[in-house]
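name: query_chain
kind: protein
chains: 1
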Amino acid sequence: MSCTEYNVYFCFSEKPKCMFSLNKPTDVFMDIDDEQTLDFRSQFEHVRKCFGFFKPCLGDIFPNFSANTTEGEIDFHDWLGESWGILFSHPSDFTPVCTTELARVLTLLPEFIKRNVKVIGLSCDDISSHSEWCKDIKSYAGCNDDEKFPYPIIEDKDRLLAAKLGMVDKDELDASGMPLTARAVFIIDPKKKFRLSILYPATTGRNFDEILRVLDSLQLTDRVKVATPVDWKMGDDCMVLPTVPEDSVDTIFPQGVTVVPLPSGKKYLRKTPCPNVL
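structure:
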């Protein structure tokens, strides 16, 4: 099984239609009826929704799915409920880097819970493999083996879910030549919107402290008109959004705003103490 990439070509005609190329099935031609009022985003969204072979984009409602997990069958959206969610995939059970990653998630679980975040793993291994491997993960994390493993792991033996979500690594194959899942991280908010995507190769373990940092940023900037600068962590100064007018700054940011002088003379780099809203 392999993931297919599609090329979408926009054309202009009086009778809009969408069709595949007979000579090259991976080419898709999308006709557009009015060049003057062309909205590329809406046309692209139409193609994606009609054909369903594009992985979700940031801002989309994250696709719902049913899956078998170490905690039984779930409906993903129902399982999320009103929580934030992290869906992360790993290449294979009983492998060194994956074991360290899932153990780190286990030890960070109190931090995720504090942020109203549910976590769920995924790989191409089956439930029996996941369940047996969980013992090793708990041991590596220094947890009691008698304790229940605290978050579910999805089995995706046929790779259908991984392929749909763009998690497959075509360069990493199992013994039978089937592709394995890459180290993907997806963050979904309580409205089921897709908020973040990070994809790591199999040889590079993830930094889950960075995932927590991103969660803090997403949750903060959902509440306040700020952005978080490079290497920001909770408590550091934030940047006032460029869309905030000067005459509203004092009202919105009573803690004060500092304008950083720049050679251009433009006053776009405005810092404010981190709002205490979380």
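note: The first strand starts at residue 7 and ends at 12.
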